[in-house]
Design a protein that fits this description.
about 100 residues; mainly alpha; 3 helices
Length: about 100
């Protein structure tokens, strides 16, 4: 079985139950965001922070490795801020539209 077919089958089994529980477009989108997008986003942010910590521990004072660790730190902070702003934007839009 090729990779595209396997990905399609797995995505149907992962996403379809979430789609089937919502009866409106709003319900479907809310289920996908709450059950698929947010856990993936939060897991990736946690993994980035762990990798950043490991890079700082492995640097051992080497300037080149410290530079890489600092870049990773800025990327981790930026990713965390983007996730927080995305959650805030959704809440602001919902409150503005009265949903």
């Amino acid at each position: 079985m090729n990779k595209k077919t396997l990905f399609l089958i797995l995505s149907i089994f992962i996403v379809y139950p979430f789609l089937a529980t919502g009866q409106t477009i709003e319900g479907i989108l809310e289920n996908v965001v709450n059950r698929v997008v947010w856990p993936i986003a939060l897991a990736s942010v946690i993994i980035f922070w762990i990798i950043t910590g490991i890079l700082f521990l492995a640097a051992l004072g080497d300037p080149a490795k410290l530079k890489t660790a600092k870049l990773s730190l800025f990327a981790s902070v930026g990713g965390t801020i983007v996730i927080i702003l995305a959650a805030s934007a959704i809440a602001i839009i919902r409150n503005t539209l009265g949903i």
